[in-house]
């Protein structure tokens, strides 16, 4: 009985849409490919909206099939392009988007994006009956309900590669380098890349007054340590890498301090192996979730298993930094 019902529900899904929204992240293409090919396997047609919700509002789309997603798994960025849509925050924009969904007679929609994109999807659901599921696409890894977001692994590898290079020059000149990494509200990029690159300290938004602690640390550093790397998350209350360097100079003028802001370089590049696999798992399960009538949930991976977290919960992105990892960094960086 259950099996017959399962098959009946599967038949309902004939056509779906997919879009990437918010900041791009490496692995989005692998996810799109997985969505399109899984849908094709179940005889579901897929269309891709261009520039995220902007494409949905303007009915700007392309047909996607097995061939159109060939050769993209290894590419960074997103073949569908992306945008942060202000129009989608208006009632008019939401109504237009719902109209596009109706016009195409879509049965499902897959949103690949971050918390802002999922908040938008919750609003959209007030104007349409289409089933909506999401895959977490952001380098920040700041969503509840998944161990890794699409883009995070590649971004931290990019940071580690850059810091390794900075270490060479820092070591040669006995300098302090203050390196600013992305993470508007979260210090996860900073923490993990600091551990992997052997950085001496981090400043992250989750920890208050960490700048005062840093100054004490700079004073207490071993004299035989010639280079020092401080990784600052852009969202930290200190005000960014230049500010941190200035304050260190004020307190410890004997130090030679340099600043490097890694910026958008962290958002580009070929996705790592782990990224491609995780993004594929998420895209595959997004289509399976639609077939199972799931709605307004984000597909995540927790303890290597696919999970479904309601958008409402996923967007409350106050991920605590693992205290044990923080303590480990502290101990290992001395
Ligand atoms: O949310 C991902 C992210 O890369 C943040 O870490 C960063 O603050 C932001 O996007 C930058 O956005 P934009 O590319 O729109 O300037």
Description of the structure:
This protein has 334 residues and is of the alpha/beta class. The protein folds into two domains: 2-151 and 271-310, Rossmann fold (3-Layer(aba) Sandwich); 152-267, Phosphofructokinase domain (Rossmann fold), CATH 3.40.50.460. Helix content is 43%, strand content 18%. It is built from twelve helices and eleven strands. The protein has a seven-stranded mixed β-sheet, sandwiched between helices. Strands 7-8-6-9 form a four-stranded parallel β-sheet, sandwiched between helices. A hairpin with a 2-residue loop joins strand 10 and strand 11 (305-310). The protein is elongated. It starts with a helix and ends with a helix. The mean pLDDT is 94. 6-O-phosphono-beta-D-fructofuranose binds at residues 23, 84, 114, 138-140, 182-184, 234, 267.
Tell me which CATH architecture of the largest domain applies here: 3-Layer(aba) Sandwich
Q: What is the number of domains?
A: 2
Beta strand % = 15-25%
**Roughly how many Å is the radius of gyration?**
22 Å
Regarding CATH, which class of the largest domain?
Alpha Beta
Largest sheet: 7 strands, mixed
Offer a few descriptive terms.
334 residues, 4-stranded parallel β-sheet, 2 domains, 7-stranded mixed β-sheet, binds 6-O-phosphono-beta-D-fructofuranose, single chain, Rossmann fold
Summarize this, please?
By secondary structure, the protein is α/β, with parallel strands linked by helices. Helix content is 43%, strand content 18%.
């Amino acid at each position: 009985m259950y099996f017959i019902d399962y098959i009946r529900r599967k038949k309902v899904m004939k056509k779906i849409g997919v879009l990437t929204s918010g900041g791009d992240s490496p692995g989005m293409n692998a996810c799109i490919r997985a969505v399109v090919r899984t849908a094709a396997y179940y005889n579901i047609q897929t269309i891709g909206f261009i520039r995220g919700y902007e494409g949905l509002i303007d009915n700007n789309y392309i047909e996607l099939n097995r061939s159109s997603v060939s050769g993209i798994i290894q590419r960074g960025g997103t073949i569908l392009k992306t945008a942060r849509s202000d129009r989608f925050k208006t009632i008019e924009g939401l109504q237009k988007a719902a109209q596009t969904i109706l016009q195409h007679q879509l049965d499902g929609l897959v949103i690949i994006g971050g918390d802002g994109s999922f908040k938008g999807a919750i609003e959209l659901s007030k104007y349409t009956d289409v089933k909506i599921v999401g895959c977490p696409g952001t380098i920040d890894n700041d969503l509840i309900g998944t161990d890794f977001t699409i883009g995070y692994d590649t971004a931290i590898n990019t940071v580690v590669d850059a810091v390794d290079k900075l270490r060479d020059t820092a070591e040669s000149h006995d300098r302090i380098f203050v390196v600013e990494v992305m993470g508007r509200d979260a210090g996860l990029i900073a923490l993990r890349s600091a551990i992997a690159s052997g950085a001496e300290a981090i400043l992250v938004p989750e920890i208050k007054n960490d700048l005062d602690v840093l100054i004490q640390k700079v004073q207490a550093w071993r004299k035989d340590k010639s280079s020092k790397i401080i990784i600052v998350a852009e969202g930290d209350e200190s005000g960014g890498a230049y500010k941190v360097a200035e304050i260190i100079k004020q307190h410890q003028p004997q130090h030679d301090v340099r600043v490097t802001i890694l910026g958008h370089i962290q958002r580009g590049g070929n996705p790592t192996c782990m990224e491609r696999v995780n993004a594929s798992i998420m895209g595959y399960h997004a289509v399976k979730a639609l077939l199972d009538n799931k709605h307004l949930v984000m597909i995540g991976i927790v303890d290597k298993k696919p999970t479904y977290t309601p958008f409402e919960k996923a967007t409350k992105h106050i991920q605590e930094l693992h205290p044990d990892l923080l303590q480990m960094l502290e101990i290992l960086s001395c």
